[in-house]
Specification:
Layout: H1 3-15, H2 20-38, H3 56-61, H4 64-90, H5 98-123, H6 125-128, H7 132-155, H8 161-166, H9 169-189, H10 192-212, H11 221-227, H12 234-243, E1 259-262, E2 265-268, H13 272-294, H14 298-303, H15 306-328, H16 336-364, H17 397-422, H18 431-458, H19 462-481, H20 498-533, H21 597-611
Antiparallel strand pairs: 1-2
Helix pairs in contact: 1-2, 2-4, 4-5, 5-7, 7-9, 9-10, 9-11, 13-15, 15-16, 16-17, 17-18, 18-19, 19-20
């Protein structure tokens, strides 16, 4: 029947364009339409006659009878809130008293009566056809209106201090019952609607009533609700425990310790709401560590992070609200409570971003996208017409590029998350922490370049792939040399281990050499084509011209060897050359006399003198 959704949608639609007065007028118009449909409207000039009360059988036959009761209750509540709002605008410095206050309370009393009538009708499950969830929603709605009525009764009252602390108990009891029911419904159905109802009016009202009841703020709203819950109602307790067995079990903040540690700095948990959220986060983290190894699909592994993200966000919201409350009280930044909250805020917000990055890493793959395995071939379920089996086909290039595009988008989201961590208050002064973040950013950016190189390789662009791999290798070297944080969880988060960075660097070194070889072959092939076109190659294959260096580096790769081999003569025996003929003495050969160098010089001198002509005439002048 979705009672909570029905009421919430009406309120949201009305408050978008108007206030409580317009909401009341809208409900009046809707009530008249519903009464006409059900035949319970009074004619224009007819005398009014009281109509019979709505029965459970009528609700079972037509849900409009249930809407009739809810709309009537909502109109009375809107009337009360309208009077309260108009008085606050006209007399902001005066309390509501006298007939106005009585009128507001009477309108709230009417709303509570119609809400209780709804609970009685739905309790007859056989006649109304309501489920256990429908009954719980109706009871939560009635308890919330009863709490609002008690709130208005006590908010403007006066009395002694002892009486003032006790008169808020009925308000706390009703609101506590509503909160426990809505919280159980939220855990059972996972609908954010119940969480919005709690954050809208229920939790702030409990906090204010607990403050008036002299309850310390270190006790969280969940603990207050469980303390003042009406446990004497056995049927209600049984219905709630059926949805959530741990709904009424009070989890103390000490279960997870009263302190939180962030990079060697310890801070006290000064707000109970933060402690409750950290307890829930701890249990969700342990469940996540157990569920990840058991999950096989990537989608299931990513969905396992949902509860951790929700509880981490709750802890961050509770810390933010606690800081805002201290600021409103005028507490300075140097106060110990404010300092503890600042450290807690930094730790919780970092965890929130780290878990978000961990979910991104799970979506990328088990090895952070270091490898790119092909998707298993999916055969059609229908059989072929010829009766043969379907042939496995390779994944098309378009699908591969689409998968790589999704990976790159996840890497961009991770890098944006790391930048948001640097923007957190308190991180700029920690140089070591910033260096760790820079190393992590280099690791994920290297993976991004690696996957981009895969995409270029698929479209036969090895030069671009080589450039990206070279860039990724330099980033991986930076990631290896940067400081590494200690791992705090078994589940993937933001931090990167030293072994992961080393594995990435080694893989990139091998892949860079691979792409360099491809680029070299591409260059040789292109030069070979140029050489073939310009007739720069000889007829003989390259294997027979290994002693020749190719001109301008051009090699005809199509003429490496002769294939198939041709029949031609090949020298079988080696050739012997008689190089020792002049140095070996054979029989019968005349022995040469070795002359000394002096004798040779003397003989040459004699020959030269004999060769000179005789002198003629005087003074050797001839005629």
């Amino acid at each position: 029947m979705d009672i909570t959704k029905f009421v919430a949608e009406y309120r949201e639609a009305a408050f978008l364009v108007g206030d409580y007065s317009s909401y009341r007028a809208q409900l009046s118009r809707r009530l008249r339409i519903v009464r006409k449909k059900l035949g319970r409207a009074t004619a224009k000039n007819a005398k009014y006659t009281a109509k019979a009360a709505v029965t459970a059988e009528e609700v079972g036959r037509n849900a409009e009878f249930l809407h009739l009761l809810l709309l009537t209750s909502e109109r009375a509540w809107a009337h009360a809130m309208s009077m309260k709002t108009s008085h606050s605008e006209d007399n902001a410095d005066q309390n509501i008293s006298g007939s106005t206050r009585q009128h507001i309370i009477s309108r709230l009393d009417k709303a509570v009566r119609y809400a209780n009538d709804t609970v009685k009708l739905l309790s007859d499950r056989a006649a109304s056809g309501a489920s256990d969830v429908d009954v719980l929603e109706a009871r939560a709605y009635a308890y919330a209106l009863a709490g609002a009525q008690e709130f208005e009764k006590q908010a403007e009252g006066a009395g002694s201090k002892d009486a003032a602390t006790k008169r808020w108990i009925p308000c706390l009891t009703n609101y506590s019952a509503a909160r426990v029911i809505y919280s159980s419904l939220f855990k059972a159905t996972k609908k954010d609607l119940f969480k919005e109802v709690l954050a809208g009016t229920t939790d702030p009202s409990i906090r204010y009533a607990a403050y008036q009841h002299r309850i310390p703020r270190t006790i969280g709203v969940p603990s207050v609700a469980k303390k003042f819950f009406p446990t004497e109602d056995a049927d209600l307790v049984q219905a709630i425990e059926k949805l959530d067995p741990a709904a009424l079990q009070d989890e103390e903040t000490k279960a997870s310790g009263s302190t939180i540690t962030w990079r060697g700095r310890t801070a006290n948990i000064v707000d109970a709401a933060i402690g409750q959220a950290l307890v829930s986060l701890e249990s969700a983290t342990s469940k996540l560590a157990k569920s990840l190894p058991a999950s096989t699909s990537t989608k299931d592994r990513a969905n396992a992070y949902d509860d951790v993200a929700i509880y981490t966000q709750d802890a961050a919201d509770a810390t933010r609200r606690a800081i805002e409350e201290l600021k409103k009280e005028g507490v300075e930044e140097g106060d110990s409570r404010m300092q503890d909250l600042r450290v807690t805020s930094l730790a919780v917000n970092y965890d929130l971003i780290a878990w978000r990055v961990g979910r991104y890493r799970v979506l990328i793959g088990t090895d952070d996208g270091l490898t790119f395995p092909p998707n298993p071939p999916q055969k059609p379920k229908r059989a072929r017409k010829d009766g043969k089996e379907w042939v496995d086909r390779e994944e098309p290039t378009g699908r591969k590029l689409a998968r790589l595009r999704e990976r790159v988008a996840l890497y961009d989201a991770i890098l944006q998350s790391i930048d948001s961590v640097k923007d957190l208050k308190g991180t700029t002064g920690d140089d070591g922490f910033v260096a760790e973040l820079d190393g992590q950013a280099a690791y994920y950016q290297a993976l991004k370049c690696l996957n981009l190189s895969h995409s270029h390789a698929f479209v036969s662009a090895p030069r671009q792939a080589l450039a990206l791999c070279n860039r990724a290798l330099s980033l991986a070297s930076q990631a290896v040399s940067s400081p590494k944080p200690t791992a705090s969880s078994d589940a993937p988060k933001l931090s990167v281990s030293d072994s992961q960075a080393q594995t990435l660097k080694q893989s990139l070194e091998n892949l860079t050499l691979h792409y360099r070889g491809l680029v070299a072959l591409l260059q040789l092939s292109s030069k070979s084509d140029v050489g073939s076109k310009a007739n720069l190659t000889n007829a003989a294959p390259v294997v027979e011209r290994l002693n020749e260096y190719p001109t301008s580096g051009s090699v005809d790769l199509k003429n490496l060897v002769t294939w198939p081999p041709k029949l031609k003569p090949v020298p079988v025996k080696p050739l012997f050359l008689d190089v020792a003929w002049n140095y070996v003495e054979y029989p019968g050969q005349q022995k040469k006399v070795q002359e000394t160098a002096a004798e040779k010089a003397q003989a040459e001198t004699v020959k030269a003198e004999e060769a000179k002509p005789a002198k003629k005439g005087w003074f050797s002048f001839g005629r």
